[in-house]
Specification:
13-stranded mixed beta sheet; 15 strands; alpha/beta; Rossmann fold; two-stranded antiparallel ribbon
Length: 501
């Protein structure tokens, strides 16, 4: 069924999809891309009638099986998602179906930035993984209706820029989308002063970047990621990455370059390069990002048990002696680190497991602890939860990176896994309460909260947190020079991240 809404500030009648509890307006353009590698431009005029019944195109990218990491059975058919480098600046708006009164409401707004190693779209609304319908429907049932917005933006080499124009085009696309929310969300019944920005993995990296650059949002949710996971890199690193792709283009055809090749040729060059992750380029606004807490009033931080899962296949193929050398690269800390993480080359399994544990602790756990302390020092409200519910399709995979998307957004029927279904419902309730400016769980300022395992839902005492996370090891890492630890991290993780784990 369709539903229409005349939007005053857009001066356009939008037609979306209506279900029993929500209305989706899909693929709304929030900007235009005049040419490849150009900054996005604000749309000044919209057509009188705008069809919002189909999801908009995503950025061209190397195809990846989203179901692989999430353990979604291979007989599940994901819908085809169109791609267009010039029309990927679009977003979806999901409203609770509360009738005509919604236009005069001032509902809190969730803005979602998807992840995917800054390379691909991992978990779009179109795929069903990050469809906002269930969390919006749950908000209506709880008597706390929210509006949700999910953003598409440029990725991989299309987001790098050409070295002559602006860099970090993904960030610039997202900034324009956030401005669009400020300008137009009230026409949907949303409150532009009650915006919560959220993202997972690479999406959380972007959210952290917007946080430290004082994006106009009231709250931020960082799930399984931060700038500490993938920090801004110097210009020469971006040039080297761009040249890698250009070289692969020339191998395909000597006449090709990044400016003139077709989008499909550029994607093929990215595929041939083997690059599975990208990064932000340093700009002056990143100065002192490690200590900034931004202008947002409150933060919600979450991580899962096995964040290092996306490095697993690569690390498992690494020779134990090379793993030991990576730890030795930290200099004076090498011997202590090897002891702490059980790095013994004559014990390959212990060695490789320890490498994954180090990546998990240094790139995920330690940043969460750092961000929590920084926010508390700045007198900001910060809440932290541990997502420990195992994958519903393959519980032996544990609570791995990105499984929280399946739980939180409820895009799949999990009735076969009651504990996962229970945890997902509880997560949505907590997120909705946070979006409303409330404490997400009882005594949340004093206690961490555990979602799972085995369907358990509880505030955690200190000893329980320490039994679920290597808190003591992370504290030891915090006492070591990050420049030394970065060398070990690079030696262990560079080129090994993959969504096919």
């Amino acid at each position: 069924m369709t539903a229409s809404l005349f939007h005053k500030s857009l001066n356009s009648t939008l037609t979306g999809i209506k279900t029993s509890e929500v209305i989706q307006f899909r693929g709304i353009p929030y900007g235009r891309i005049p040419r490849r590698f150009a900054a996005p431009e604000k749309l000044e005029r919209y057509p009188r009638w705008l069809d919002c019944t189909s999801f908009g195109p995503r950025c061209p990218q190397v195809a990846v099986d989203v179901g692989h990491l999430l353990r979604i059975p291979p007989d599940h058919v994901f819908p085809h998602e169109p791609e267009d480098e010039f029309k990927c600046t679009n977003l979806d708006v999901v409203l609770p179906d509360i009738g005509p009164s919604i236009e005069s409401s001032k509902l809190p707004v969730l803005v979602w930035i998807h992840g995917g190693s800054q390379a691909v779209t991992f978990g779009s609304a179109a795929s069903g993984v990050c469809d906002m319908s269930t969390i919006v429907a749950d908000s209506l049932r709880l008597g706390k209706p929210i509006i949700a917005v999910s953003i598409q933006y440029r990725l991989n080499v299309f987001a790098l820029g050409n070295g002559n124009g602006p860099p970090n085009l993904a960030l610039r696309d997202q900034e324009l989308a956030l401005q669009w929310v400020q300008d137009h969300i009230s026409g949907f019944g949303g409150d532009p002063d009650m915006v919560t920005l959220a993202g997972e993995s690479a999406g959380a990296i972007y959210c952290h970047a917007h946080l430290v650059t004082n994006a106009r949002v009231r709250q931020v949710i960082l799930s399984s990621g931060s700038l500490f996971l993938s920090s801004p890199q110097p210009r020469q690193s971006v040039l080297a990455l761009r040249e890698n792709i250009s070289r692969n283009l020339r191998d395909m055809d000597q006449t090709l370059d990044l400016e003139t090749a077709s989008a499909s040729q550029v994607v093929e060059a990215v595929r041939r390069s083997g690059l599975q992750s990208f990064f932000l380029e340093w700009e002056d606004f990143f100065n002192a990002w490690q200590t900034k807490t931004g202008s947002a009033e409150r933060l919600l931080l979450s991580d899962v048990t096995k964040e290092g899962a996306i490095y697993q296949a690569g690390v498992w193929l690494t020779d134990p002696d090379d793993i030991a050398k990576a730890f030795d690269a930290s200099g004076q800390h090498g011997d202590e680190l090897k002891k702490l993480y059980h790095i013994y080359p004559d014990r390959p399994s212990s060695c490789k497991t320890g490498a994954l544990d180090f990546i998990n602790d240094y790139k995920y756990l330690l940043p969460v602890q750092h961000l929590e302390k920084s926010c508390k020092d700045a007198k900001k409200s910060v809440f932290r939860c541990l997502i420990d519910e195992a994958n519903p399709w393959q519980p032996s995979s544990g609570a791995h990176h990105a499984v929280d998307l399946v739980l939180l957004f409820g895009g799949f029927d999990l009735s076969f896994a009651p504990s996962a279904e229970r945890v997902g419902q509880a997560m949505r309730k907590a997120w909705i309460k946070f979006i409303y400016g409330e404490e997400p769980w009882s005594e949340a300022m004093e206690n961490y909260y555990g979602f799972g395992p085995h369907g358990s839902l509880k505030s955690l005492e200190d000893w329980e947190v320490q039994s679920r996370r290597r808190v003591g090891l992370a504290e030891k890492l915090s006492e070591m020079e990050s420049s030394s630890l970065d060398k070990t991290s690079f030696g262990l993780a560079a080129g090994k991240v993959s969504l096919l784990n």
